[in-house]
Amino acid sequence: MTDQKKIKKHHNPRVALILSIIFAGLGQLYNRRYVKGSLFVILEIAFFVIFGRFLSTGIWGLTTLGTIAGVDHSVFLLVYGLISLVIIFFAVVLYIFNIKDAHKQAKLIQSGWEPPNFINSIREGYEKSFVYILTIPGLILLVFTVVLPLLFALSLAFTDYNLYNSPPRNLLNWVGFKNFIDLVNIPLWRDTFLSVLSWTLVWTFVATSLQIVLGLFLAVLVNDARVKFKKFIRTVLILPWAVPGFVSIIIFAAMFNDDFGAINRDIIMPLFGGNGIPWLSNPAYTKSALIFIQTWLGYPFIFALFTGVLQSISKEWYEAADVDGATRWQKFRNITLPHVLYATAPLLIIQYTTNFNNFNVIYLFNQGGPAVKGQSAGGTDILISWVYNLTFDTNNYNMAAAVSLVIGLIVIIFAIFQFRRTRSFKEEGQV
């Protein structure tokens, strides 16, 4: 017993650390965790045997994007390189875990800890890793279906991939921040970008705010105790939400048609005469119609959301306000509105970020038109629909990726700023 204590006392965690750095699993073997150490050794050997050649090709392709035009496909090499980076990332995480595990257990052994036997170590390992066993497949799927495409789009923003420089006929090149510089320096790109960005911000703020205000107004109105047939009214007001959005948009596109639309033919022309309003050929009128359509499509969800919150506000608050002589506006401003916003602020923020990238309404109504002279985007294109046009109409993949990156940064900054200021995300004791 004394000899074992002496051995444990001289057990050096630094040796385990160095051995695990030299080769995964050696530190565990030094700690006499033979099963775990053997698994790490097998995993590292298998990693180099299985992925060694693929990783070398992937890293070479990622750095060079090919060297022989017509033979090397730059896009494929870029994808292989990104996959290689993902694989290396997981390998590094596992390698670091191996180092920390060996060092930690060596320190425990030095302090007198007795490693469990084989059966107990299997049971203990299974209990600790059960959660990871369930989540790792989903994590891997998430990486290859979400993270990898994002990395690919991000990478294209720093290349010269366009209609006139497409693989395999031509090789792609890394151009650094040239695409972003062109976006603000070249008049065609700068004017289009500023025009589309300004309309996107106006569209996001006005359309979303209107649907929120309308939804709140109708929810407060229907929730009034004097209103009868509440269930019927709520059902009618939610009906626009029940119809698929793309169907409603297509119907509105026909109704607002300049030539045969019901808005002009049955309402505007009989009442005011003339040829009607150019809803689809004048950008100002088209933008107004789009804001109206989005308000119509978006308010039912807000109405249903606010209706549920209003039901949860205690009537005692309003009774106390009546005793104090508060007016309707004071009760709304000091009781109703704070409660509603506190409970729904995260969802309202999501409404803004969703409308910022609301491609369906813009594209289905008028394909982002009408056309604007001297710009590469339509008069009602928002950033996301402009990216679609750059990708599928003009094949400017590099500029589309650059604009997509700008979109992502704007949404991330806005979301972080709003979430940090939203009281719903603070601890209750800090409110």
Automatic annotation (TrEMBL):
It comes from the Bacteria. This is Maltose/maltodextrin transport system permease protein. The keyword Cell division does not apply. Keywords: Cell membrane, Membrane, Sugar transport, Transmembrane, Transmembrane helix, Transport. It is a multi-pass membrane protein. It is found in: Cell membrane. Belongs to the binding-protein-dependent transport system permease family. MalFG subfamily. Residues 197-418 form the ABC transmembrane type-1 domain. It comes from Amphibacillus indicireducens. Part of the ABC transporter complex MalEFGK involved in maltose/maltodextrin import. Probably responsible for the translocation of the substrate across the membrane. The chain crosses the membrane at residues 37-55, 75-97, 130-158, 196-220, 232-256, 289-310, 335-354, 397-417. SUPFAM superfamilies: MalF N-terminal region-like, MetI-like.
